[in-house]
Amino acid sequence: MMTTKHTNDTKMRTRIVCRFISCVLCISWFQLVAASARTLNVLDFGARGDGATLDTAAIQRAIDAASAGDRVLIPRWHTFLTATLTLKGGIDFHLAGTLLISTNQSDYAGDGVILASNAPDLTLSGSGQILGRSLCFMTNYDAPNEWWLFQEWRPKMFVLTGCTNLIVRDLTFADAPFWGLHLLGCYNVLVDNVTVNNRLDVPNDDGIDPDPCRHVEIKNCHVTCGDDAIVIKSTRQTNDFGDCAYIRVHDCVIRTQDAGLKIGTETVGKIHDIEFDHCRILSGSRGLCIQLRDEGEIYNVIFRDLDFVARYHSEPWWGRGEGISFTALPRNAQTQLGRLHDVRVENVTGTAENSVRVNGSDASRIGNVVFRNVAMKFARWTAYPGGVYDNRPTKVLPPVVPHQLDGFNLRQADGVVLDDCAVRWAETEAAPLGAAVRAEDVRGLTIARFHGDTAAHPILVP
């Protein structure tokens, strides 16, 4: 009769042998995949790479020939003129050289340059660049308003739709004529070390737009653009992509003429569990921004360990230098406005030409906003007209409303906490100074350890 010890030893040896066989099989599988993976150079598929010949078809042939695990190579030292390229799952689209986008609408098969739809395990990598030639899609420069006016049609740089396990890393795209990296309904996404170098005077050239996506990490990116730099959206779609949730943006450096870190304005679905941390906004029309304008719900949002500069720009650009702006305003008279609640702002330093603003509306009050260790310095250093908040987009309320320069301006909100916050004004004659804290129709306001310099104005809480 076999002893218990012998039985246990036999079982253990069996497990060890099984694990060994499993490891060998696993290693063999990975070796097989590695051995079968190929690099498909687009030059071998007829691409010229001279910057003048349209290479779309040749590059697409390389993509179509690739199998899971293969790399499609855009080689360095070449410039490839291209229009719409449609990527597929399982490949690494590796950009070592330059893609130069076509300016002829007839060359395009979609509304973007780099497209993918329901493509799992897709990687876009490489240290190359995509040049968007934005001014070729403009009509003329509007000098009084300091921006370019655009033609009726212009392509997005990327439209990646319904992709799972997506990686975008190390790329540069520049001079985009329209939105940059548009992630639509994607799941499990890493955007790492991407450089966006768009013009500051071209409208709608957003940097990175998750819309509505889940489980996304955006890190180590450098974004320069005229419009919103990194903006989380929930646009109206025919497909139901679900909530926009579990997104973290961190360790990024931003320069823009619109909002630096933003949620909205397209907010038709739920947006929740969003974290922005350890980013620097070198300049923007608003530093931190949430704009609820539709029927969606926004909640569980954290802004942490950030610093920013917010300033006035010319009239057409949205934002009026608000350091922080959280608003819930109906887009139009038919809007059934959703809710904005449970937002935290912690360990944030800002210099701004305009207030920290929390503004609900008759349609929807804002709830449970906590500011903890937020230090604001207010000054005027541009010559643009000031003294207004920007409500746009809304057809229910005035587009801009006049005000004094308050530190914190709070309206139609509940459960607002100011804990260990500081307000300081620079010496200036350019703006009518208001209150350190102005609260109108605010319920449950808590102010603790509030700091102001010797010129601090009173706290006005009716």
Q: Could you describe the 3D structure shown?
A:
The chain is mainly beta and 462 residues long. It has a single domain (43-460), classed as Single-stranded right-handed beta-helix, Pectin lyase-like (Pectate Lyase C-like), CATH 2.160.20.10. The chain contains 2 helices and 41 strands. The radius of gyration is 26 Å and the shape is elongated. Mean pLDDT is 91; it is low at 1-35.
Write the layout of secondary structure elements.
Layout: H1 4-36, E1 39-41, E2 50-54, H2 56-65, E3 71-74, E4 79-82, E5 85-87, E6 92-95, E7 98-101, E8 112-117, E9 123-125, E10 129-131, E11 138-142, E12 147-150, E13 156-161, E14 164-169, E15 172-174, E16 181-184, E17 187-192, E18 195-197, E19 208-211, E20 214-219, E21 222-225, E22 230-234, E23 244-250, E24 253-256, E25 259-267, E26 271-277, E27 280-284, E28 286-292, E29 298-310, E30 322-328, E31 340-352, E32 354-359, E33 366-378, E34 388-390, E35 400-402, E36 408-419, E37 422-425, E38 437-443, E39 446-448, E40 451-452, E41 459-460
Parallel strand pairs: 1-3, 2-4, 3-6, 4-7, 5-8, 6-9, 7-10, 8-13, 9-14, 10-15, 13-16, 14-17, 15-18, 16-19, 17-20, 18-21, 20-23, 21-24, 22-25, 23-26, 24-27, 25-28, 26-29, 27-29, 28-30, 29-31, 30-32, 31-33, 32-36, 33-36, 33-37, 36-38, 36-39, 37-40, 38-41
Antiparallel strand pairs: 11-12, 34-35
